[in-house]
Amino acid sequence: MIQQAKEVLETNWRGGFTVPTDKLYPFQWNWDSGFVALGWARLDLSRAIAELRSLFSGQWGNGLLPHIIFHSESEETYFPNFDFWNSQINPTAPEFPKSSGITQPAVHGFILEELHQLHPDSQELNELISELIPKICLYHSFLYEHRDPYNEGLIFTYHPWESGRDNSPVWDSALDSIVIKPGDIPSYSRRDTSIANSDERPTQDQYDRYVYLLELGKRHAYQGQSLYEETPFAIQDCMMNAILYKSNQSLLRLAEKFDYPQEEILTWVSRTKQSFNKKLWHDKMGCWVSYDLKRDGQIEEREIGGIIPVATDLASQDQVNRISDYLIRLKKRGFSLCPSYDVDSPKFDSKRYWRGPIWPHMNALIAEGLEAQGESELAKLIDRDTLQIVDEYGFFEYFDCQQDAGIKSGYGGDQFSWTASSIIRILERSQ
Ligand code: DGY
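That is the input. Now the predicted structure with (2R)-2,3-dihydroxypropanoic acid docked in place:
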C-alpha cells in the first residue's frame, strides 16, 4: 500500500506542488496541501518543503491564505476558475499566482510542527519554519481581524467551501435562508459533475448558493466588517476553530524554539479556551456543534466536524468518553468508521460527499487525536477501517460507511493525494 500511495503522490506532483487529483481538482488546494506535505515528509522532505512554500506563495498581503492557488491559467476542467474569483479585486492579492478569495481550515501550524518532529535536524526545514511562522501568524491574525466580530477567539466562515465540508447538512438551514432572485448570480456551468458522478456531489441548489456567497465575498473584496454585516451565512464552525486552535498551540511551541514573539498567539489561545466549549459543546447530543451567528444559536447536527475537537486539549475526558461511546456504538451496528454525518438522520446520504461518506484524512486526524487521549483501541479500529476500505476500493476521495451496501467502488475523485498521504501516516503509526 505504501508503494501505491507513493505512486499516487508522484502522479499528482506538478513540479513544486501536488494537485488533490487530476481534472476534478487540477490546482493547489490549501488544506489538501497541508495533509499532503505530511505524506511527502515521509518520502521526500524536499517535496514537503516545496509544497508548503508554494502554497504560501499565494498568500495575500492582508494575510488571507486562499483555498485554491491557480498555478496554471490554462487548466480548464474546474469551475470556478481564477477569472471567476477575480482575486485582484483585493489590492493585497498577488498578481501571480492567482487565487480564490476564501480560505480553508488552518492546518498549517500543526503540520509544520509535525514536520519538525519528523526532521528536527534538517537545516532546509528549519529555514522553512523560520520563514513560515510569521506568515502563519499573519494568516491567523487576518482570521481574527475579519472573522471574529465579538473577539471570542472563534472565527466564522461565510462559505461552506471554507469548511472543507461543502455540502454537510450543518450548512443547510443557513443556505436555505438564501433566496436567489433572477440576476443575483451570473450564469455558470459546473465542471465537477462531468468528471465525478452527480449523485456523489453537491446538488445544483447548493451550487447556486455557493456561487451566491462567492459573489457576496467579491463585492466586499473578500474581507471586512461590511461583509459580516451583509452575509446571511456566518457560522462558527467547530472543526475550523478546533483546527485553528491546534495550530496556534503548535505555533506557540515552534515560536519558543525559533525565538519568535508569543504574546499574540497566547491571547488567541486563551480566548478560544474561554469560549470553545461554552459555545460549541452540545451536552444533550454529546458532541460539538457549530454556531450560527446570524440566527444566534447552535446548529443541532451530528457530523464529523463535531468529532474533530478530540484532536485537541479542548476536549475533557468526559467529552472524549462520550465521543468514543458514540463511535463504538456505530461500529457495533456494522458501520465503518467514521461516517461524516448522522446515520440516523433522514438527511443521511451514504454516497453524497459530506452527507455520510468516510474521508480518510478525517479518520487519520480523529484516530491520532483519540490515541493521544488514551483511546488506543478505538484509534486502531478507525485505522483498520481506513486501511481496509482503501485496500479494497483504491485511493478514492471518499467511501461508503455501510459495509453491506454492495458497493463496488470508492466515490468522488480517484488517485486522491490526501488519501495516499493518510495511508502512509496510518501505516507508519500502526507499525
Ligand atoms: C469543490 O470544488 O468541490 C471544492 O470542494 C471547493 O473548493
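Residues 119 and 336 are 34 Å apart (CA to CA).
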